[in-house]
Description:
Blueprint: E1 16-21, H1 28-44, E2 49-54, H2 65-78, E3 81-83, H3 87-95, H4 99-116, H5 121-125, H6 129-139, H7 142-149, E4 154-157, E5 160-163, H8 178-183, E6 198-201, E7 210-211, E8 215-217, H9 222-225, E9 227-234, E10 237-246, E11 251-255
Parallel strand pairs: 1-2, 2-3, 5-6, 6-8
Antiparallel strand pairs: 1-9, 4-5, 7-8, 9-10, 10-11
Helix pairs in contact: 3-4, 4-6
Amino acid sequence: MARPTSTKLPAVPAGERVYAIGDIHGRIDLFEALVRIVEADDARRGKAHTTIVLLGDLVDRGRDSAAVVARAREWSREREVEIIQGNHEEMLLASRDNLDALRGFLKFGGLETIMSYGVVPGAIMAANVEALQDLLNEVIPQDDFDFLASFKKMIQIGDYLFVHAGIRPDTPLKLQLGQDCRWIREPFLSHKGDFGVCVVHGHTITPQPEVYSNRIGIDTGAYLHGTLTAIGLQGTDRWFLQAHDREASGETSAAA
């Protein structure tokens, strides 16, 4: 991993601690494991004002998006949790009344999301796109739609900006478009200049967290590679926590 080259490391405010978690994509097993790891790590490090940030894409592709949404809501009742809206939440919300959006949603893991709400595969395969839209609106509770719609575009804590995909270079933060925040790759990923903040993001899968002076990417492919990553931040310190899927043994393990 590349190390930051700036002489002044970004920091969170004194007395605060932040954990940000990358794209979950329906992997409730990894999410539950990482929740336990984060809670234990937070307790071990002593008293602080702790904020949890979920970087979006809770849904699609994995097998249990419904359970991930329920667990995220439950966790947000237990402690301070901020949730960023990802492009997959955007697609799901748009699919309620837009058939073109639904077609895209179905191509990128939406079928798995619908099935996670108790729909059998046979019912999905027998339905046309209009019937699938009706089914989606029938099986997903309005409370879940409202919860997903409440997710934020970005949040800033100290010198760190938390966003799903990234931001457009040379554009002030207050002028960033939601579409870019949820979908952008280039020119964000290759930008070498100063964003004015250190951007912590998901959306783009890498085998390990990517650490640069201006951004940190923590989407390590929960649904694809079986690794869900969190970054911990306190002062100028940063550390990583991971939950790993061991397909051969059926076990989930954790590593700092």
